[in-house]
Design brief:
mainly alpha, four-stranded mixed β-sheet, 27 helices, 4 strands, 57% helix, elongated, coiled coil, BTB/POZ_dom, ubl conjugation pathway
Length: 606
C-alpha cells in the first residue's frame, strides 16, 4: 500500500532552496547548466538529474547540434509550470506529496517527459499509477476529485486512460454503496424521512462538480453496472438544480427574452438540458417527478433546445397526464406576439396521451386487462376535466387565437367528458374576453358544446346568457323542455341507453378483434351514460330537498301534502333517465362566467 506522502525523499539536502524569481533555481548554491522554459517561465536546472529520469529531455539534449546546449523550450506542457516544478523536484529526489489534486497532472507530465521504467526504476509514471490504483480508485469521492482535475488537462489525459479509470471506479463504488444503502434503508425505515434520504445516495452531490461531458459518461457507466434508476434520477435532478441556476423566473416574462443570437452560456445550458434529458432512465419503474419534468420542459423551451429533447419531455409527461395539476400546464410562451401561454406544447402533450389511449384500445389483450400504466377510461375523464380547467384559464388571454382555442377543444373525444359544464364555462369566458368575434365565429365555437350534456345549473345560465348565439339558446331551451317532459312521464329520454344495449350484440361477420374493439367502445359509452344518469339523479335529489325546505318554510303544518309530493318526485328520480326537471331553484343565483364558485366546480365519476 502506498501512503499519500509517496514521494518523500529519504535524504534532503540542507542546501536545497526554492525561490520565486523569474528564473527558478532548484539548488541556489550550485550553478545550473541548462535552462528550461515552460509557458514563459524559466527553470535553471542541471542536466544530469533530468536526463537520468526523463527520456524526452535526454533525446532533446542528444539531438541538439550544439553539445553544450544550455536552453530548452517545452511547449504545451500538461499542468503548466507548477506541474513541471513538481516533476523536477521528483527528478532531484526532493520531498513533496502526491494528492488527488495533482496526481492527474503528474501522470500526464510524466507521460510528456517519458519518465518510464526504461530510464529509472520507480519512475514518476509508475509512482503516479500506483497512487491511482491503490488509493484513488478505491474511493468514490477521490475518483470524482481526480476526474474533475482532468477537465483542465489536454487530450493526453485520455490517452493515458485516467478519465476512464476514474469513471469505472465511480460506477463500481456507487454500486457498492447501493448494496450498503440497502441495509441502511432497513435501519432508516423507523426513522424520519429526512434521515432516510440522508443515508441514501450521499454521492449525488459529489457528481454535481463534474462537467456535463464527464457527468454523462459517469451516468452511462452507472447504468451499465446496475445502479438503481431512482438513484440516477436523484443525481440528474441535483445536477440540473446546480448547473441551471442562472435561469431565473424573471427571464420568462421578459419582453426582450428572444435574442437574435444566444450567448455562449445559454448554448452551454442548452447542451446541459439536452444531455440530462437523454440520460433519464427509460425503465418504467423509475418515476421521475412531474414537477421536474415540467421544469426541464420550461428550460428547454426558454433555451431553444433541440426539438427531440422537447418531444421526449412531452412524451414522458403525457405518460402520466392524469396526475398533472393545472399549474403545471400553464407554461409561459417565449415568443413575442404569441399568446401568454404555450398552447402548442400542451396540445402536443394531449396528442401523445390520446395516442396512448388508442394504442391501448388496439392491443389484442384480455377483456379486463388494460396493462400496467395504461390511461384507462377513468384517466381519460380526469384529463377531460383538467383540459376544461386549462381552457378556462387561458380563455381570458386577448392574444389567444380562435383557431388554437378550438383545436384544444376538438382534440378530446366526446367520451372524455361526462357533462360539458366545464367546456361551456371556458367558451363563455372566451366570448366575454373576445367581444370582437363575428357571428359566424361565435356559432362555430358554441357548436362544440353538446347542449344535452349540460347540467341543470348550466342550462339555467345558458338560457339567460346574451353572449351566446340565438340558435344555441333555442337548443338549450328545447332540450330543457324535453328533459322536463321525460322526467315527468318517467321515460328514459331519447332512448339512448336502450339503443346502446340493443346494439351491443357483435355481428357474426366481424372478426374477433373487431368484435372486441366494438364491445370496448360500447362498454365505455355505457359507463359514460351511467355517469350522466348519476349526475341527473343527484340534481333531482337536490331539487327534492330544496322543494321540501320551501314547503316547510311556507306552511308549518303541510306534512300530508309534502309526503305525497315527495313520494311522487321519488318515483320520478328512480325511473327517469338522464332527464330532469327544469324548475328554477329558488335562492340560488344563476351560474355565470365570473366568480370562484363556477371556477372551482368539479364533476367526478365514481
Amino acid at each position: 500500500m502506498v501512503s499519500e506522502n509517496l514521494l518523500s525523499s529519504s535524504k534532503r539536502s540542507p542546501t536545497t532552496k526554492f525561490c520565486n524569481s523569474f528564473t527558478t533555481r532548484i539548488f541556489s548554491d550550485v550553478a545550473g547548466d541548462i535552462t528550461i522554459v515552460v509557458d514563459g517561465e524559466s527553470f535553471l536546472l542541471h542536466k544530469f538529474p533530468l536526463v537520468s529520469r526523463s527520456g524526452k529531455i535526454r533525446k532533446m539534449v542528444a539531438d541538439a547540434k550544439d553539445s553544450n546546449i544550455s536552453k530548452l523550450k517545452l511547449c504545451s506542457f500538461p499542468g503548466g509550470p507548477h506541474t513541471f516544478e513538481l516533476s523536477m523536484k521528483f527528478c532531484y529526489g526532493m520531498n513533496f506529496e502526491i494528492t488527488t489534486a495533482n496526481v492527474a497532472h503528474l501522470r500526464c507530465a510524466a507521460e510528456y517527459l517519458e519518465m518510464t521504467e526504461d530510464y529509472r526504476e520507480e519512475n514518476l509514471i509508475a509512482r503516479a499509477e500506483t497512487y491511482l490504483n491503490e488509493i484513488v480508485v478505491q474511493s468514490l469521492e477521490k475518483s470524482v476529485e481526480v476526474l474533475f482535475t482532468c477537465e483542465m488537462l489536454p487530450p493526453v489525459a485520455e490517452e493515458v486512460g485516467i478519465p476512464n479509470k476514474c469513471i469505472e471506479a465511480i460506477a463500481i463504488n456507487a454500486c457498492k454503496e447501493q448494496l450498503v444503502s440497502g441495509l441502511s434503508r432497513l435501519d432508516c425505515d423507523s426513522e424520519s424521512t429526512e434521515l432516510k434520504s440522508g443515508c441514501l445516495e450521499w454521492w449525488v452531490e459529489d457528481l454535481s462538480v463534474l462537467g456535463i461531458n464527464y457527468y454523462q459518461r459517469v451516468i452511462c457507466a452507472m447504468g451499465r453496472v446496475g445502479v438503481r434508476p431512482d438513484s440516477i434520477v436523484a443525481s440528474i435532478m441535483h445536477y440540473a438544480q446546480t448547473s441551471l441556476k442562472g435561469i431565473g423566473k424573471c427571464q420568462i416574462w421578459n419582453p426582450a427574452r428572444m435574442k437574435p443570437s444566444p450567448s455562449v452560456k445559454e448554448n452551454d445550458q442548452s447542451i446541459i438540458v439536452e444531455t440530462l434529458v437523454s440520460l433519464m432512465p427509460t425503465d418504467k419503474s423509475s418515476s421521475i417527478p412531474l414537477n421536474f419534468l415540467f421544469g426541464m420542459l420550461r428550460m428547454a423551451i426558454m433555451l431553444d433546445a433541440a426539438i427531440a429533447c422537447r418531444l421526449e419531455l412531452e412524451r414522458r409527461i403525457a405518460f402520466r397526464l392524469e396526475m398533472v395539476s393545472l399549474d403545471d400546464l400553464l407554461i409561459p410562451s417565449v415568443r413575442i406576439g404569441d399568446s401568454l401561454f404555450d398552447v402548442d406544447t400542451v396540445h402536443r402533450i394531449l396528442v401523445n396521451f390520446l395516442q396512448r389511449v388508442e394504442e391501448e384500445e388496439n392491443e389484442d389483450c384480455g377483456y379486463e386487462s388494460e396493462g400496467i400504466g395504461s390511461p384507462g377510461h377513468d384517466s381519460l375523464l380526469k384529463v377531460g376535466r383538467l383540459i376544461d380547467s386549462y381552457l378556462a384559464e387561458i380563455a381570458p388571454d386577448p392574444y389567444l387565437s380562435l383557431q388554437k382555442f378550438i383545436a384544444m377543444i376538438e382534440i378530446l373525444p366526446d367520451y372524455a367528458r361526462v357533462i360539458d359544464d366545464g367546456l361551456y364555462r371556458a367558451i363563455d369566458i372566451y366570448l366575454k374576453a373576445h367581444p370582437m368575434l363575428s357571428e359566424h365565429e361565435c356559432k362555430k365555437l358554441c357548436k362544440l358544446t353538446d347542449c344535452q350534456k349540460l347540467s341543470q345549473e348550466a342550462c339555467n345560465h345558458a338560457a339567460q346568457n346574451d353572449r351566446l348565439p340565438v340558435q344555441m339558446t333555442v337548443q338549450v331551451l328545447y332540450f330543457e323542455q324535453l328533459r322536463l317532459k321525460n322526467a315527468l312521464s318517467g321515460s328514459s329520454g331519447d332512448g339512448f341507453l336502450s339503443q346502446r344495449i340493443s346494439s351491443g350484440v357483435p355481428s357474426a361477420a366481424m372478426s374477433p378483434r373487431d368484435n372486441y374493439a366494438s364491445l370496448r367502445r360500447e362498454n365505455r359509452e355505457l359507463k359514460l351514460e351511467i355517469s350522466r344518469m348519476r349526475v341527473r339523479l343527484s340534481e333531482l335529489e337536490k331539487e327534492q330537498r330544496h322543494m321540501k325546505q320551501g314547503m316547510i318554510d311556507k306552511s308549518g303544518n303541510g306534512r300530508t301534502f309534502f309526503t305525497s309530493l315527495s313520494k311522487g318526485i321519488g318515483r320520478i328520480a328512480i325511473f327517469s333517465g338522464p332527464g330532469g326537471g327544469r324548475r328554477q331553484k329558488s335562492g340560488r343565483k344563476p351560474r355565470g362566467s365570473e366568480g370562484k364558485t363556477g371556477r372551482s366546480r368539479r364533476h367526478s365519476v365514481s
